[in-house]
Predict the structure.
Amino acid sequence: MTRLLIKNIGCLAQVEHNIRTSVRGAEMQNIDTINNAYLLIEDEKIIEFGQMELCPERADKVIDANGGYVLPTFCDSHTHIVYAGSREHEFIDKINGLSYEEIAQRGGGILNSALRLHKTSEEELFEQALERLEEMKNFGTGAVEIKSGYGLSTEDELKMLRVIRKLKEKSDMTIKSTFLGAHAVPTKYKGRQSDYVDLICTEMIPLVAQEGLADFIDVFCDKGFFTVEETAKMLETGAKYGMRPKIHANELDVSGGVQVGVKYDALSVDHLERATDVEIEVLKHSNTIPTGLPGTSFFLNLPYTPAKKMIQAGLPLALASDYNPGSTPSGNMKFVLSLACIKMRLTPNEAINATTINTAAAMGISKTHGSIAIGKQANLYITKPISSIDFIPYAYNTPIVKQVILNGKIQ
Ligand code: NIG
Ligand code: FE
């Protein structure tokens, strides 16, 4: 048993006395804080916190926060960080006027990454992904969902998922894995999309389940990718194998992806750059968490998810990075906070709730992550001294993280 004490915390933020699954609507306006606080960790869990007057005198190790703030680490509930290399030449194509869909239709985009992934060893993929995880951790992220989807063959999808399994074993980050075989139709199946959907249902999903490689199943249900009917078929098969859906929907068009996601009790529906009042209404009658990815809107010059409207409708909005080589080569959740405030007009408190507790919910881990609460995992970061919580998204390019602690371990 080891006790780690953090003292002289300028402000302990996002504290919770009763653990909530998520926060919705007007509740998102609130972040509970304790000024001039301490926090006590035993092994990997938070066991006590309060005002400095009540601070215990002894612990095995003491960190003096020197007035810095302490917040729960970000939970990033939507990423694609297992990929080979990068795609900056497509970045130039986009600057020169090609759209994301046009690049995809020419065999670029996801298919380009699939080709590269095929040629890259499991070890190399692991090393590259680990480096990205490390980068994300330094920006204050402690939990990450990672998708497959650059394999697009049984062998390569399994390869990707094994890399994610190894990341789960080797990294201090909390990781959830998602099977996204239906990310694009591979070149080999061009013109035979339904055969590829069959392959996913009859071969990939059973093998993924047999090896216990995925916590969730995802489908890119959008214009030019997979239809609502195909999505339904794959989600139905996934459900038989105990995989709850997390869906890519409404990035390129009003796709029907929200409705099919909700029908199959998706944990989250993500992207939603084109969500309308109809989608918002459907989400109101569901347990599905709408997740915006403002980094994608920024990088692809797409409309932003109507996040404020969703909060006003009482929904538990989440915001994640979507870190991937094509539409968001960044896992900086602090920048996501800034985009949420600047482009979506969320208040800093709404944005923090959307990137901590609600993204924890969108990964199925809000009992243990996403806030500072007794019994939760000690996943938090200490900032340099800052003037207020609002400073975090305001200073949109200033690094503020001084130290990260994951599962009670100083990183
Ligand atoms: O979420 N939109 C689909 N998938 C990813 C992009 C993948 C890629 O371009 O490599 C996304 O944005
Ligand atoms: Fe994505």
